[in-house]
Amino acid sequence: MGDKEFGIDHNRLSWYAKEIKQIAEKDVQVAIVIGGGNIFRGIQANKENEFDRVQGDYMGMLATVINSMALQMSLEKAGLQTRLLSAIKMEQICEPFIRRRAIRHLEKNRVVIFGAGTGNPYFTTDTAASLRAIEIEADIILKGTRVDGIYSADPEKDKKATRYDKISFDEVYKKGLQVMDLTAFTLCKENKIPIIVFDMNKPGNLRKVVLGERVGTLVEF
Predict the structure, then answer these.
(1) Strand pairing partners for 219?
(2) Which of 5, 20, 33, 134 sees the fewest Cβ atoms within 10 Å?
(3) According to the model, what pLDDT value does residue 52 have?
(4) Secondary structure class of 211 (helix, strand, coil)
(5) Which CA distances in Å does 126 have to 16, 49, 84, 141?
(6) What 8-state DSSP symbol labels residue 110?
């Protein structure tokens, strides 16, 4: 959204594309899962009883495809080769998700964007990111957020919240910290995929994370 109340901020999109290009040019294989809350937030609509849960979730999945298409255009304008794979078939605008095809695109140094979540209701884009990371045998999940890591409490609400440089999966469970939804987090733990939570809106952070610099919070085993 950028500074807008809803929709897509093209300046923010272009900025993200430049950040992603910096790491893609270092021969890093990049796969992206993007949410759709700037267009439609299914969970909120469900809580307010505005929509049937299943219908609302599918609407949210379609919103992620719109964002994915917008990001794809920005990445290609920046000079990157991309492929958009969707968990819901939309042959006119994107390829269907096929695991082997996704891996092959990555091997050819194409930035792969996974749209439409898992293709199933009741699952978040966090879960989609974890599932796709497992399927393509990713080394790590980089969760870009508005804050610079994991805190003992919500730093936007509690000024006394302290940030963790590193934390284990078990500690996250014990402390009841919200890194991502529980299904997604458990998938990562069971399949031994570490997570780095970092501020995606700070220039150069994505590049620093990929180069191994201390940015954000590492969730390890």
Answers:
(1) 167, 195
(2) 5
(3) 85
(4) coil
(5) 19, 23, 18, 10
(6) P
Q: Write down the residue that tokens 């901020």 correspond to.
A: 9
Its pTM surpasses 0.90: yes
Q: Which helix (H) or strand (E) holds 25?
A: none
Under 8 Å between Cβ of 115 and 86: yes
pLDDT of 32 strictly over 70: yes
149-184: per-residue pLDDT in tens?
A: 999 988 888 888 999 999 999 999 999 998 999 999
Rounded CA separation 204/144 (Å): 12
Banded model confidence at residue 118, pLDDT cuts 50, 70, 90: very high
Q: Which of 23, 33, 76 is nearest to 206 (CA)?
A: 23
DSSP string, 127-149: HHHHHHHHHTT-S-EEEEESSSS
